[in-house]
Design brief:
CATH topology: Rossmann fold
Shape: globular
Order of helices and strands: EHEHHEHEHEH
Number of helices: 6
Helix content: 40-55%
Distance between the termini: 9 Å
Length: 144
């Protein structure tokens, strides 16, 4: 069996690399959003031209990023959504909801300090992990 896993959520730590390195011996294909924050924010205006208002600047970028995100989530067997400590990740919550609405197997990854705030997201998940190593072990179990 081969799994397609989409790694969504915060981009300010190396959690994706930890999972990919830990799962290097597994039959898994990973995909993810653009994790270069500036490139992600500016893709719309870089490709389609500048905007005077920040709203439209962000709007263009969000729509282009949504093409990649939707494709990644729709193609995935499992969606992992990481909620970090540094910023509020509204996009991560949206991705988790989208994955749940599509009936995707959802793994949520966050620390214990987010348990209450993410209780509804956690309730939609098939697993809630606190560390990337736990995600690797879940993948290992599913594939064995």
């Amino acid at each position: 069996m081969k799994l397609k896993v989409y790694l969504s959520g915060e981009i300010h730590s190396d959690w994706r690399q930890e999972i990919m390195t830990g799962a290097a011996d597994l039959n898994v294909i990973f995909s993810a959003p653009v994790t270069d924050h500036e490139a992600s924010d500016d893709c719309g205006v870089t490709i389609m031209g500048p905007e005077d208002e920040k709203f439209w600047h962000d709007h263009k970028g969000a729509k282009l990023n949504a093409i990649r995100t939707r494709k990644g989530i729709e193609d995935a067997d499992i969606v992992v959504v990481r909620f970090g400590d540094k910023y509020k990740q509204w996009n991560a919550a949206f991705d988790a909801g989208y994955a749940a609405a599509l009936g995707k197997s959802l793994i949520v990854l966050h620390g214990p300090d987010h348990q209450h705030a993410l209780k509804e997201v956690d309730a939609a998940a098939l697993a809630v992990a606190e560390r990337p190593e736990q995600v690797v072990e879940i993948l290992r179990y599913v594939l064995s």
